[in-house]
Amino acid sequence: MRIENDLKLGFKNIMIRPKRSTLKSRSQVNIEREFTFLHSDLVGKETPNMDVNIDTVETFEMAKALFKKKLFV
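The structure corresponding to this sequence follows.
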């Protein structure tokens, strides 16, 4: 068994300060990211998205609607 004696931090030990922004509206936010793939020259520019309840939410119609908004699932 390995016993670790180094300092451990929790959420109470860390203060997160929001960064100031020059944006005037949330519509100006761009969350599109560029992904590079390991062992490939391919680069994808996509918007990260996470779905839940895949069996009831992720239908072909919903996938098409999200694709129009440049979201992938």
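The helical segments are 54-57, 60-68.
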